[in-house]
Write a structure and sequence with these properties.
This protein is mainly alpha-helical. It contains twelve helices and four strands; from the N terminus they run H-H-H-H-H-H-E-E-H-H-H-H-H-H-E-E.
Length: 344
């Protein structure tokens, strides 16, 4: 009996030691940061609504109900601490080795999930309101993620998460620097982003509004050389001044594209506005490259679907006919997905 009591007494402190060990291990392991941070994601949503007509806004709010567009834009990040949503961890980014092209795969990443959500809402007849809302939340957030270049980055440094930098405004990792620190330090606001709209020609606006998720990803990756344009982890004010303009432009483009998606999936007609004065979306530009009706799986939200394959056509357009969506057994089944321990 004496030895048993000693054994029990020994186990309790051992549990604490083991728990402390794993907590410390978690803290030192590099993980994925949030894209844009709260302020950046909210700006993308606000820009989108600035350029939306009232009818589309009402259609969106019908499903968001009492949730604000700002809350919708950050919902995926706000729930990352809830292990129920662990299956979404890899949905915030796409990693492609430097110098390589994207190769279609069935993995769940930002590209495949965003395309799936758009597809689901384009065939939303028969879907429950709560599932339409879920897909809207995915779209609101992932469009923002897609326009943060480091969320289309390199697996070797986890999208800049393992790259340590020193700058006049922040010492830490490169990813967080782009997510949050430049936006906050330079006090980037909605009007700063909207002011850039008149810098675009009508043809550029038309191109921006065209639904082509693969091309959007490629455009973000094209900015990576500038993101890494520093030496020995030292970043100066000139780098910040240059790239705050890149960030403002990316936030604006992300907002315009979110608006284009929302108008596309809710199919609300709107006249072409004059430059700089009215909503910028061009319905003729919002070309839909999603699957044919015979592939439709009506009644399934993106969170209830699995991607069986992807296909990029010769013109760079994503065709979801071969990016095929197959009904999952249930939303609960997603919880069984294995999540890499070093990704968040």
């Amino acid at each position: 009996m004496f030895y048993f009591c000693m054994f029990v007494a020994t186990i309790k402190p051992m549990k604490k030691i083991i728990a402390s060990f794993f907590l410390a291990l978690t803290c030192i392991m590099p993980c994925r940061s949030f894209a844009w941070g709260k302020a950046g994601h909210e700006l993308v949503a606000e820009i989108a609504f600035h350029y939306l007509d009232d009818a589309t806004k009402q259609a969106v709010m019908k499903y968001l109900k009492r949730m604000t567009i700002e809350a919708a834009s950050t919902w995926m990040d706000e729930n990352r601490s809830d292990h129920f949503y662990d299956y979404m961890r890899t949905w915030h980014y796409i990693d492609i080795t430097k110098g390589e092209e994207y190769h279609p795969s069935a993995e769940k990443n930002m590209l495949t999930v965003l395309n799936s959500a758009i597809y689901a809402l384009q065939h939303k007849d028969g879907m429950k309101d709560k599932d339409i809302k879920q897909d809207l939340l995915l779209i609101f957030h992932l469009v923002g993620d897609l326009h943060q270049p480091l969320h289309t980055g390199y697996p070797e440094d986890k999208g800049g998460n393992t790259v340590e930098i020193k700058s006049p405004i922040y010492n830490g990792n490169l990813h967080s620097f782009w997510d949050t620190q430049i936006i906050e330090a330079e006090n980037i606001k909605l009007d700063d982003c909207l002011a850039l709209y008149n810098n675009f020609t009508a043809e550029e606006i038309k191109s921006i509004n065209k639904l082509n998720v693969l091309q959007w990803m490629k455009q973000s990756r094209a900015l990576l050389d500038g993101v890494y344009d520093f030496t020995d982890g030292k970043i100066d004010q000139a780098y910040i001044d240059k790239n705050k303009e890149v960030i403002k432009k990316q936030l604006l483009i992300g907002g315009l594209r979110l608006a284009s998606i929302l108008r596309n999936v809710f199919k609300v007609a709107q006249p072409q506005p004059s430059m700089g004065t009215a909503p910028a979306n061009d319905t003729s530009a919002a070309t839909n490259h999603l699957p044919a009706a015979d592939y439709a799986k009506n009644g399934n939200s993106a969170s209830q679907l699995m991607d069986a394959g992807n296909h990029a056509s010769t013109d760079g357009t994503f065709s979801m006919g071969l990016f095929q969506i197959v009904a999952n057994n249930s939303r609960q089944g997603r919880r069984q997905l294995t999540v890499p321990a070093d990704r968040s």
